[in-house]
Amino acid sequence: MKYHPNRNDQIWQADLISSLSQHECEVKFEKSDGSVRIMKCTLQSNLVPETNSPRKSAERITVFDTEAKGWRTIKFDRLISYTVQNEYVRSLE
Whole-angstrom Cα distance, residue 38 to residue 60? Predict the structure, then answer.
């Protein structure tokens, strides 16, 4: 598997978190079972439930899956790529 070369760099991780906080992103990563998943997700405050907040960790990121409407955790060391999908803030309604 070819992982993103900067996936464990703190600056790159901060850029990813910043992008997720402002936009919906498509994140490609390897799941723990070895399969590859492409997920549309975000950390935009107007799209994530107020009742549940993501857990913080240096090794992983918890994001809101905008298609499954639930929280998902991704290990940074399994990230393959991400791209910004929507450069605007939208609502789930």
Answer: 16
Residue at 91 is within a domain: no
pLDDT of 52 reads 61
Contacts of 40 (CB under 8 A, 6+ apart): 24, 25, 26, 27, 65, 66, 67, 85
Q: Which of 93, 83, 3, 1 is nearest to 41 (CA)?
A: 83
Instruction: Give the C-alpha separation, 49 to 9, whole Å.
Output: 29
Tally the domains of the chain: 1
- pTM for this prediction: 0.86
